[in-house]
Prior knowledge:
This protein has 98 residues and is mainly β. The chain has one domain (2-93). The chain has 1 helix and 7 strands; from the N terminus they run E-E-E-E-E-E-H-E. A hairpin with a 7-residue loop joins strand 4 and strand 5 (57-62). The relative contact order is 0.27. The mean pLDDT is 93.
Amino acid sequence: MSKVLRGADAKLPTPLKVVYFSKRKEPAKDGSWFEDVSKRVVRLEIEGPEGEPESPHLLVRRDAQGKLVWKTRHASLQEALWHAEWEYGLAEAAWKTA
Length: 98
């Protein structure tokens, strides 16, 4: 069972290091099926199994309403923290334990 282990507010870097796209249910007026959802991210969470620090962890990105924007899987809690630091410039000290 996975639970939120840490959380932090996200500040988007300029320029973005990673861009995430989501498929629309219907095409936009310009005919595109995919929408850039990268700039919706305002909150980061790390989810992982309790008591298993080296099990796979998820770096979850959420929007202002708390809805899932994107998530990536990482081999450990430390790897997820490193990825958040690289992608968002978020230092490990900025995280709050859930």
